TrEMBL record, chain A:
SUPFAM superfamilies: P-loop containing nucleoside triphosphate hydrolases. It comes from Streptomyces monashensis. Its main location: membrane. PROSITE patterns: ABC_TRANSPORTER_1 (PS00211), ABC_TRANSPORTER_2 (PS50893). The keyword Zinc does not apply. Residues 5-254 form the ABC transporter domain. InterPro entries: AAA+_ATPase (IPR003593), ABC_Ni/Peptide_Import (IPR050388), ABC_transporter-like_ATP-bd (IPR003439), ABC_transporter-like_CS (IPR017871), Oligopep_ABC_C (IPR013563), P-loop_NTPase (IPR027417). This is Methionine ABC transporter ATP-binding protein. It is found in: Cell membrane. One of its GO terms (biological process) is peptide transport.
From TrEMBL, chain B:
It comes from the Bacteria. One of its GO terms (cellular component) is plasma membrane. The chain crosses the membrane at residues 63-80, 128-151, 163-182, 188-207, 242-260, 296-317. The lineage of its organism: Bacteria, Bacillati, Actinomycetota, Actinomycetes, Kitasatosporales. It comes from Streptomyces monashensis. The keyword Membrane applies. InterPro entries: BP-dependent_transpt_permease (IPR050366), MetI-like (IPR000515), MetI-like_sf (IPR035906), OppC_N (IPR025966). It is found in: Cell membrane. GO terms for biological process: transmembrane transport. This is Peptide ABC transporter permease.
Length: 327, 326
């Protein structure tokens, strides 16, 4: 396994109390594999990724338990300097909004070149040449001229391509993309996603795709992990999950996608709000919003049951859910 | 969307401008793909940035130009006072006490019979030296301490913030009277040292705040995610984006330090005679305001213009650096 997260716990200490953002997340990505992590805002998907990258703000954040095994080493036991060397070179991250993720006062060429200067000790001139190559690699027209331009002089799609180029500069084994297309126009989203998928195939890297867009996931991902209240509630190969979700939350998400054959009807929405992370409901965190909730859900926290060898669901009633709702 | 590179040949072929072709062709060879950003203007190679935008604004601002002119003149005068004033500011003739303007003394003479014009010109050196050095010291010390506290946070940040609170509680003039009255050295250094001691918390607070703001930007997290070290993040990604407020406050503070030097010298704890300072001259001339107002007027006027020039320059720079005012 390239990356294995085991029973990760992260909490944030704030003035109002302790917010438990991640409560025992486990997932794994192999090389060449794409894992989509799906969930609403505040489900802990980005925090998990930040913990993996080692860029969690501490304080207020704190990793209170678990292991992050990367190529067999537990990252949480490494010194900061060793982790810094891994970041960028062996694992990299693509951010949501490239305009704010690129430094406004440094030209894109210098920012791309910085990767080679920091990790490879290249001269500025060589780094600049590599920056142009990278920009051509992500299909930026006129790369040789535009290498001196500043981020705000590029369109949104172009900026995200530069962000991708930066993340892939040193051909890392693992890339985490945190909602890479959310800030883009729908027309550009597909282009950027295709580029990312193409480069991933070429470099055979492991990709963690964090998103709340089920549409993006279907084409690209191999596996899906659905998160709710800092926990993985369902983990499955992408086809199986779309065919028959084994958790009522996943079912709710799939039902809330607008569909052409239901034109004119009211769009389904999961009732209620995501839980307050300072006060997560006892038992199954989803029970207050769950149409299938029984008494046992209010008291007993469901483990991740093995639905099949490649599939897990954290629902007491995964069988009922899998074989259709009993309304 | 500019996904296609701009192709000069095709563009010209389509224009069919006939006689204008030569000109168009020669221009076209130098054309490069136009920048594509939302603000995409200007040729490639002259990227628009906060600083170039600010400079463009400032060049068109008459207040800035006037203040800059006054300041350039002041710096020139403090470097080479003898270029515009003959004689020594310390050559005084009691026989000419409180005389009006005469040949070689367009501002007249003060109570000791010293040439007011010469003394005013030489006084600029003290003011500019104290103002510039105090501002430099305050900016360096304040930025480093405040910046580090803002970046690393935690215990050191808390300690530093409380220390700045303590310094803010010290009244400047009273503090100067107490601290400087025990100093015997008659140079600018104790005055500058005092100003740095009391002035750094102001800059440190600004620097801390703007580093904290800059630190939260995604590009800082992105730089960290790509393996940049703390030093690199601070110097390359945070400092250039956090320095603008410090520059503004420092420029305005420069004016106030010049005024403070004059105040301390007036009170007799800053520079003392035979040093030459506008504060000393104002102090010496104030008892004779009715008999010889000119001896008070000129150093006071010079002080007021100087302080105003720096403060208004700082204002202009602040306006130019604030994108929201554009």
């Amino acid at each position: 396994m390239l990356l294995e997260v085991r029973d990760l716990h992260v909490e944030f200490r704030t003035r109002d109390g302790v917010a438990k953002a991640v409560n025992g997340v486990s997932y794994a990505v192999d090389e060449g594999e794409t894992l989509a992590v799906l969930g609403e805002s505040g489900s802990g998907k980005s925090v998990t990724a930040q913990a993996v990258m080692g860029i969690l703000d501490t304080p207020p954040g704190r990793i209170t338990g678990g292991q992050i095994l990367f190529e067999g080493r537990d990252l949480l036991r490494l010194k900061e300097e060793e982790r810094r060397r891994i970041r960028g070179a062996d694992m990299a991250m693509i951010f949501q909004d490239a305009l704010s993720a690129l430094n406004p006062v440094v030209s894109v060429g210098d920012q791309l070149g910085e990767m080679f200067v920091v990790h490879r000790g290249m001269s500025k001139k060589d780094a600049r040449a590599r920056a142009v190559e990278l920009m051509e690699r992500v299909r930026i027209p006129g790369a040789a001229q535009r290498v001196r331009d500043y981020p705000h002089q590029f369109s949104g799609g172009m900026r995200q391509r530069i962000m991708i180029a930066m993340a892939l500069a040193l051909e890392p084994a693992l890339v985490i993309a945190d909602e890479p297309t959310t800030a883009l126009d729908v027309t550009v989203q597909a282009q950027v996603m295709d580029l990312l998928a193409e480069l991933q195939r070429e470099y055979r890297m492991g990709l963690i795709l964090i998103t709340h867009d089920l549409g993006v996931v279907a084409d690209v991902a191999d596996r899906i992990a659905v998160m709710y209240a800092g926990r993985i509630v369902e983990s499955a190969p992408v086809r199986d999950l779309y065919k028959a979700p084994a958790h009522p939350y996943t079912r709710g998400l799939l039902d809330s996608i607008p569909r052409l054959d239901q034109k004119g009807q009211e769009l389904y929405a999961i009732k209620g709000l995501p839980p307050n992370l300072m006060n997560i409901p006892p038992g199954c965190a989803f029970h207050p919003r769950c149409p299938m909730a029984q008494d046992v859900c209010r008291t007993d926290e469901p483990a991740l049951y093995a639905v099949s060898p490649a599939r897990g669901s954290a629902c007491h009633f995964w069988r009922e859910c899998l074989h259709g709702p009993e309304q | 969307m500019p996904e296609q590179p701009y192709e000069p040949e095709r563009a010209i072929a389509g224009t069919g401008m006939g006689g204008a072709m030569d000109l168009a062709a020669s221009e076209a060879t130098t054309l490069e793909p136009a920048p594509a950003g939302p603000l995409g203007t200007g040729p490639v190679g002259k990227p628009r940035s906060l600083w170039s935008d600010a400079w463009r604004d400032l060049r068109r601002n008459p207040v800035f130009l006037l203040c800059a002119l006054v300041i350039v003149f002041l710096v020139f005068v403090s470097l080479w006072p003898s270029a515009i004033a003959s004689g020594s500011p310390l050559t005084c003739d009691l026989a000419r006490s409180q005389d009006g303007p005469g040949p070689g003394a367009p501002f007249g003479y003060d109570g000791q019979g010293c040439n007011v014009y010469t003394r005013t010109v030489y006084g600029a050196r003290t003011s500019v030296t104290v103002g510039v050095l105090a501002t430099l010291g305050v900016s360096v010390l304040g930025s480093v301490l405040g910046g580090l506290a803002g970046y690393f946070g935690g215990v050191w940040d808390a300690i530093l913030s409380r220390i700045t609170d303590i310094f803010f509680a010290i009244p400047v003039v009273l503090g100067g009277l107490v601290l400087l009255s025990v100093v015997t050295s008659n140079t600018v250094w104790p005055v500058i040292g005092f100003m740095v001691l009391l002035g750094w918390p102001q800059i440190s607070r600004i620097a801390r705040g703007s580093v904290i703001t800059a630190k939260q930007h995604d590009y800082v997290q992105a730089a960290r995610a790509l393996g940049a070290s703390d030093t690199r993040i601070l110097l390359r990604h945070i400092a250039p984006n956090a320095v603008a407020p410090v520059i503004v406050v420092a420029t305005i503070a420069l004016g106030t330090y010049i005024a403070l030097e004059a105040t301390l010298s007036y009170l007799g704890v800053g520079l003392k005679p035979p040093s030459v300072s506008w504060g000393i001259d104002i102090s010496a001339a104030s008892p004779y305001i009715r008999n010889a107002p000119h001896a008070l007027l000129w150093p006071s006027g010079a002080l007021a213009v100087t302080v105003l020039a720096f403060i208004m320059l700082g204002d202009a720079v602040r306006d130019a650096l604030d994108p929201k005012l554009r």
